[in-house]
Design goal:
Layout: H1 3-9, H2 11-17, H3 31-35, E1 45-50, E2 59-65, E3 68-74, H4 87-90, H5 93-97, E4 105-107, E5 116-118, H6 120-138, E6 139-143, E7 146-151, E8 156-158, H7 164-176, E9 182-184
Parallel strand pairs: 8-9
Antiparallel strand pairs: 1-2, 2-3, 4-5, 6-7
Length: about 190
């Protein structure tokens, strides 16, 4: 590499002599960074979503390639976040593809001291059985001779990341099951 070639490749020289005097574009690029392509360039489609971490509801663009999530970024069209994400939202790709993601449920039996792994289907069956039993054991047809048709055997406490549609469905489900203690953490 000659001296002239070396000087021409020097970012400060390119910044002063080129069309990028503030050093925000071409002057700041190295040859290697000029060859790089964005992680989102190979995506088949972009799916609009909402960040799952808090009640703010920042918009996200989820980039999907071959049926697999490859990148998650802030949605510039979102009136809430205008394309910005906090550190938690920026790391939400790990929810779908991270090595630490669990694909099973940990369960500790009553009075047990050890956790055991259960597959999701088994865990869902256990939850359904317990809801049915709690409903059966705590069902009240009437209270003080007033018809109630309810149960105090279980309750629902929703999280702050649930959107309106999810809250609506949860309210409908628990009301149909006879529960009257239905609340959302976002209002507490």
């Amino acid at each position: 590499m000659g001296v002239r070639t070396w000087i021409d490749s020097w970012p400060v020289y390119r910044q002063l002599k080129g069309t990028d005097p503030l050093g925000r574009g071409a002057a700041a690029k190295s040859a290697r960074s000029a060859r790089l392509t964005p992680r989102t360039a190979s995506a088949d489609r972009v799916v609009k979503s909402v960040c799952p971490y808090c009640a703010v509801g920042c918009g996200q663009n989820v980039y999907v390639e071959g049926g697999r999530v490859t990148q998650i970024e802030g949605d510039p069209d979102s009136p809430v976040s205008r394309g910005r994400l906090c550190p938690k939202g920026s790391a939400s790709l790990q929810l779908t593809t991270g090595d630490a993601r669990e694909h099973y449920v940990l369960h500790r039996r009553p009075y047990g001291t050890e956790w055991q792994r259960l597959d999701l289907d088994r865990a869902m069956d256990m939850i359904a059985d317990r809801v049915i039993e709690a409903r059966r054991a705590g069902w009240q047809w009437e209270v003080d001779r007033a018809r109630t048709r309810r149960t105090l055997g279980f309750a629902s406490l929703g999280g702050a990341t649930l959107d309106n549609e999810e809250n609506y469905l949860i309210k409908k489900l628990f009301t149909a099951l006879g529960a009257i203690q239905i609340e959302n953490q976002a209002r507490i």
